[in-house]
């Protein structure tokens, strides 16, 4: 457990253990049931109100480099007017960076913890959403690369890249969407913890959330449009190739038929044996192809 004290105390716990929970009880009246919940990760967002504090569970998207997609990390909050605990079960870069900055910079520490936990929560969530926005900016770069690739005749290569980027966007969106309900509940229940009106800070948290979710929704719509465009262009190319192959097969048909007729082993085969018979047969083939081309052109089929 790490602790920073000012007018508000911030306790940060990574992988909670029994000594951490004992120290936590000095600030929060944690029941045995809540203690068991804190020990394990939950699979959903949650807000629960107790006598003088709020227990909030948030699952936040963080990019996993090995899996190349966003994965959820859980952050539990215990919130009192002048005490705040953050509990997590894995490293969280934006939270670690913010804690170190608050610990080392006295002026910044006063900004974060110099009033109530409401101001601290606004700054913590601002850092989390800024981190999320950096992930979304990285996805934007991938979308721009896809857009350029589609119009540089790289439709086949873009199929996999579209699928991977779409997966990243959908995973991010799937994790982020339920956060809204928990933050909305927190904004509605904050009056039970704070003596003054702190609704402004929780309104700002919701606004930051909406900025991020609007961004990812726009990315989802853009990727779907690019996927449709890529499929259409790839389909058009395949249609052109199929059309050319069909023409070749169609023009080769009379040539094949004429050639086969002159190969029939009979007592008398016209033309065969006469001077220039090879050129005469070749002329028949050319004439058949020319007549077929004229007919198709007249019918406007080609």
Helix content: 55-70%
Task: Please give the alpha-carbon distance between the first and last residues.
Answer: 77 Å
> Which secondary-structure class do the elements indicate?
alpha+beta
CATH architecture annotation name of the largest domain: 2-Layer Sandwich
Backbone CA Rg = 35 Å
Instruction: Kindly provide the name of the CATH class of the largest domain.
Output: Alpha Beta
The SSE order reads EEHHEEEEHHHHHHH
CATH superfamily of the largest domain: CorA soluble domain-like
Annotation, overall tally of beta strands = 6
SS field, number of helical segments = 9
**Domains (count):** 2
Summarize the biggest pleated sheet. Answer: 6 strands, mixed
In words, what does this structure look like?
- The protein is of the alpha+beta class.
- It has helices spanning 18-24, 32-39, 93-104, 106-113, 117-150, 155-176, 179-189, 199-261, 277-298; strands spanning 2-5, 9-14, 46-49, 54-64, 69-80, 83-88.
- It has two domains: 2-236, CorA soluble domain-like (Beta Polymerase, domain 2), CATH 3.30.460.20; 240-298, no CATH class.
- The protein is built from nine helices and six strands, in the order ββααββββααααααα.
- A hairpin with a 2-residue loop joins β5 (69-80) and β6.
- The mean pLDDT is 88.
């Amino acid at each position: 457990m790490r602790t920073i004290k000012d007018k508000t105390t911030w306790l940060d716990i990574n992988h909670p253990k029994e000594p951490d929970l004992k120290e936590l009880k000095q600030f929060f009246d944690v029941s045995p049931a809540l203690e068991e919940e804190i020990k394990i990760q939950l699979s959903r967002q949650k807000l629960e109100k107790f006598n003088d504090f709020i227990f909030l569970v948030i699952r936040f998207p963080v990019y996993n480099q090995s899996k190349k997609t966003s994965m959820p990390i859980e952050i539990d909050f215990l919130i009192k007017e002048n005490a705040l605990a953050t509990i997590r079960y894995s490293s969280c870069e934006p939270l670690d960076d913010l804690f170190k900055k608050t610990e080392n910079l006295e002026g910044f520490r006063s900004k974060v913890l110099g009033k109530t936990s409401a101001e601290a929560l606004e700054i913590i969530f601002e850092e989390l959403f800024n981190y999320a926005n950096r992930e979304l900016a990285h996805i934007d770069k991938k979308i721009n690369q896809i857009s350029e690739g589609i119009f540089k005749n790289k439709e086949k290569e873009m199929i996999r890249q579209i699928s991977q980027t779409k997966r990243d966007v959908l995973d991010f969106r799937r994790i982020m969407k339920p956060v809204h309900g928990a933050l909305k509940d927190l904004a509605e229940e904050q009056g039970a913890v704070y003596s003054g009106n702190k609704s402004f800070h929780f309104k700002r948290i919701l606004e930051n959330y909406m900025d991020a979710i609007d961004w990812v929704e726009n990315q989802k719509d853009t990727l779907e449009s690019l996927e449709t465009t890529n499929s259409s262009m790839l389909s058009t190319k395949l249609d052109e190739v199929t059309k050319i192959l069909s023409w070749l097969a169609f023009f080769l048909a009379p040539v094949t038929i004429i050639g086969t007729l002159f190969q029939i082993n009979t007592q008398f085969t016209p033309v065969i044996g006469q001077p220039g018979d090879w050129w005469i047969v070749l002329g028949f083939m050319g004439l058949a192809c020319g007549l077929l081309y004229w007919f198709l052109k007249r019918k406007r089929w080609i």
